[in-house]
Amino acid sequence: MTQQAAKTGVGPTVLVAIEQHFPEGVRIIQDSMAYQILPPGVKAYVWATRFPVVRDWMVKSAEKNVPGIWSGMMCRKRYIDDRVTEAVGNHVQAIVNLGAGFDTRAFRLPALDSVPIWEVDQPENIAAKAAGLRKIFGAIPAHTILVPIDFDHQELGAVLAAHGYVPNAKTFFIWEAVTQYLTEAGIQATFDFLASAPVGSRLAFTYVRKDFIDGKAFYGQDYIYQQMRVKDKIWLFGLDPEDIADFLHKRGWHLLEDIGYDELTKRYVKPTGRKLNSMAIERMVYAEKI
Ligand SMILES: C[S@@+](CC[C@H](N)C(=O)[O-])C[C@H]1O[C@@H](n2cnc3c(N)ncnc32)[C@H](O)[C@@H]1O
């Protein structure tokens, strides 16, 4: 199952790379690295979207199946970019990106240039990302440490320590579009590790609503339910927005913000003048270690 989940690693960066073919003034996110870091096979697909007719068709068909997916993927990246940039200016000494996939913020956000960042993912994605980075930079950038892991079966603290992570550094943890792929035990094991983070550390993560995972409410997202819950069975875990503050508190974290994609779409898409749906099944959490 985790192998299936590994295949999702490239998806968000593919969409971000396609987004770069929109005129600069209407892009929701600027990312000149997204295309470059993709594995060669995927690049051809993205290349074709430089033609507006192909790009518009691509966005339309993605939106037809999963309304709100486009804005959701762009906005969650923007939100985390903003929070991590702020936090680095505010004495965060390290970043750990859990399930980093092909995310590029370590290499495109100037504020992150001099902060060590551990990018953690399944071995196949780590190997592909390493190959992409070597191709772009000639070597893995010095501030980046790539860490292969399976969260469901390996101990995150031990694996990170083996890769030089020092647990007393105030850290920003990113967990973007990952929690739904983990078992409840995998989530708890990750929080067991996060419980030892220094006070003032930050955590930004997305989650899928539990009522959707449980098949009790579909929010107009029947297609993705069929794909992820019924066919591939790779979305496993969800949370109820009403429980978030308590869930985090019990695990040593204070909820700063639990924000829906309606709000994020207003914040990041509206100024571009584009009309895009937002999706209700996923939300974003920002928390501080207490
Ligand atoms: C939808 S992708 C998100 C990638 C990236 N965070 C982003 O938003 O661009 C989910 C990522 O979680 C990783 N993942 C899922 N289950 C995992 C597990 N058990 N151990 C390690 N990584 C896992 C996948 O390999 C994949 O890269």
Task: Describe what this molecule looks like in 3D.
With 290 residues, the chain is an alpha/beta fold. The protein has a single domain, classed as Rossmann fold (3-Layer(aba) Sandwich), CATH 3.40.50. It has 14 helices and seven strands. Strand 4, helix 10 and strand 5 form a beta-alpha-beta unit. The relative contact order is 0.15. The mean pLDDT is 95.
CATH fold description: Rossmann fold
Share of residues in strands: 5-15%
Rg from C-alpha positions? 18 Å
Biggest β-sheet strands, sense, barrel: 7 strands, mixed
Order of strands, main sheet, comes to: 3-2-1-4-5-7-6
CATH class: Alpha Beta
Oligomer: single chain
* CATH architecture classification name: 3-Layer(aba) Sandwich
Write out the distinct hetero groups bound to the structure. Answer: S-adenosylmethionine
Give the SSE order as H and E letters: HHHHHHEHEHEHEHEHHHEHE
Unreliable sequence segments: none
Notable characteristics:
14 helices, 15% strand, alpha/beta, 290 residues, globular, binds S-adenosylmethionine, seven-stranded mixed β-sheet, Rossmann fold
Short description:
This protein is of the alpha/beta class and 290 residues long. It has helices spanning 2-6, 11-19, 34-37, 40-47, 52-65, 69-88, 105-108, 123-137, 156-162, 184-194, 210-213, 222-231, 244-250, 261-268, and strands at residues 94-98, 117-121, 144-148, 171-175, 202-208, 253-260, 282-289. It has one domain (2-289): 3-Layer(aba) Sandwich (Rossmann fold), CATH 3.40.50.150.
Topology:
Layout: H1 2-6, H2 11-19, H3 34-37, H4 40-47, H5 52-65, H6 69-88, E1 94-98, H7 105-108, E2 117-121, H8 123-137, E3 144-148, H9 156-162, E4 171-175, H10 184-194, E5 202-208, H11 210-213, H12 222-231, H13 244-250, E6 253-260, H14 261-268, E7 282-289
Parallel strand pairs: 1-2, 1-4, 2-3, 4-5
Antiparallel strand pairs: 5-7, 6-7
Helix pairs in contact: 2-4, 6-14
Bound molecules: S-adenosylmethionine (SAM).
S-adenosylmethionine is lined by residues 2, 5-6, 8-9, 11-13, 99-101, 103, 121-122, 125, 149-152, 176-178, 181-182, 186.
